[in-house]
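Design a sequence for this backbone.
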């Protein structure tokens, strides 16, 4: 192992010809439960969320010298906004291999002392390669005048498709709205029905909230038939408003 002075090390780490490599290692998956509120049914259910834990490294190599930075990351699967990174609780954040650095008195500097001279190029990790926010393409076409939509879904990949909105309905969080009142102040439900260019139906339901520390929740289903659509949305007054807007017959015939 070669030995260099701290001044030589400072000059070395400022060079722009370092080769950078990043690596990601998922080390655990943990299921945790969270409350999900449905404003239309006034029902709170516990759902399972898969939480991912891992380690990421940035390795910089030049002339036989290797400097490695390590940090931990975690996120809820399919939720890019939940990504959290840091080094709290870690023992080995930095490693320096292939060189020994001495100060003005000839004393060897440890890795933590050397880390003070390393800029963000040695520790900036790009997490976009994790592809946390997944999207499922359903009947996506480019050579058409129809719109391409991307719908968010909780705890599942978003859905992207080309088609049109054929019906919608929404309740209101405002008691003054009379028949449209959701029954819950500050909470309401939005229903949308789409038809893809290839003829599939995309059902989308959103439970909205105005309350602090509450969250909007997004549900969706890909349907082949109108009967499947009705199974998803049900038969309450808001669903009937949607069927009316979409020109879907909602009558049960009795012989």
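Sequence:
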């Amino acid at each position: 192992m070669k030995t260099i002075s701290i001044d030589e090390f400072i000059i070395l780490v400022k060079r722009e010809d370092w080769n950078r490599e990043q690596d990601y290692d998922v080390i655990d998956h943990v299921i945790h439960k969270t409350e999900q509120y449905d404003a239309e049914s006034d029902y709170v259910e516990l759902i399972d969320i898969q939480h991912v834990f891992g380690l990421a490294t940035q390795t910089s190599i030049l002339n036989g010298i290797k400097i490695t930075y390590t940090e931990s990351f975690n996120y809820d699967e399919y939720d890019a906004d939940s990504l959290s990174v840091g080094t709290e609780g870690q023992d080995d954040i930095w490693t320096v291999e292939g060189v020994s650095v001495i100060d003005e008195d000839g004393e060897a500097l440890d890795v933590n002392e050397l880390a003070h001279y390393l800029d963000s190029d040695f520790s900036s990790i790009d997490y976009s390669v994790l592809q946390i926010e997944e999207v499922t393409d359903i009947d996506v076409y480019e050579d058409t005048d129809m719109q391409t939509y991307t719908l968010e879904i909780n705890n599942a990949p978003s859905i992207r498709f080309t088609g049109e909105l054929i019906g919608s309905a929404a309740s209101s969080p405002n008691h003054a709205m009379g028949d449209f009142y959701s029954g819950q102040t500050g909470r309401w439900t939005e229903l949308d029905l789409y038809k893809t260019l290839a003829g599939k139906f995309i059902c989308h339901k959103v439970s909205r909230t105005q309350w602090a520390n509450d969250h909007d929740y997004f549900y969706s289903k890909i349907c082949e038939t109108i009967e499947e659509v009705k199974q998803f949305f049900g038969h309450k007054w808001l669903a009937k408003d949607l069927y009316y807007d979409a020109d879907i017959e909602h009558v049960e015939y009795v012989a």
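The chain has a mean pLDDT of 89.
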